[in-house]
């Protein structure tokens, strides 16, 4: 397969996904193989929602829209321009996927196939309805993908390299189990926001997207705030308020009630607004419905602290604080060239021999 053939196939997949990325699903008759796949994918979306209570229509639609926007000729060409992708000797790359948000492992899946390798996927049991269907669609729009995509529920074997994502505990297991293979091993990370007190109403409203999207379950969700001494939270809570319907979701509400009860019984100081809590805590990882905060006095000292903890941090959300910062509201819309853990997976894949 030539690179352009692979790019064209993923562009067609983006066109297919675009039909499902709005609140009202609209069939586009010019999308290839819609007669075979359109109704079937609607059914898979329903199954995904029923199987995992965190995968609401809104969150699935958000994920599909993000991929529809990414899988365009312009974005794919911009992403791949720095690399020499042609004449790759195909290897089999295993991907062990997480299941915390819909299609969370799709970037790895895309990266393996777009670089000319074969992919062996072990999905999470929490997210197994969507990818097999999309893989089959790819095989229809580009028959040369047939035989290059394998999904397994059993032991991962007969592969040349691996990309594995899991918890801190499973990452240690992965590092031992895959010690003789080229690998990218990812573990738990969290994202933080640095506030100055000068944020606009729009900044804080955008920050709420970084906090609440996917119920805060993603590594790119902000779980920790760094705030200056004397910071007043009134404007912050106002920026969060439009997310208040989230409390109507049973799984979220159960976590909110449980964590609130724990904090009250433990007599921890915390602030809450009926659907969300903030608590002073040095930890980076916070429970669902909670964000931790920590005061800072000196920008340089905070920069040093974040640098020391960079292996635990996925994104830093701020405005003018650091050169690698993410804009408010942008954490859940990474570009193709923004790699998890800042590890260039395409460079890794092209180096496999």
TrEMBL record:
GO terms for biological process: bioluminescence. SUPFAM superfamilies: ALDH-like (SSF53720). InterPro entries: Ald_DH/histidinol_DH, CoA_reduct_LuxC. Keywords: NADP. GO terms for molecular function: acyl-CoA dehydrogenase activity. The keyword NADP applies. It holds the Pfam family LuxC. This is Acyl-CoA reductase. It comes from Pseudotamlana haliotis.
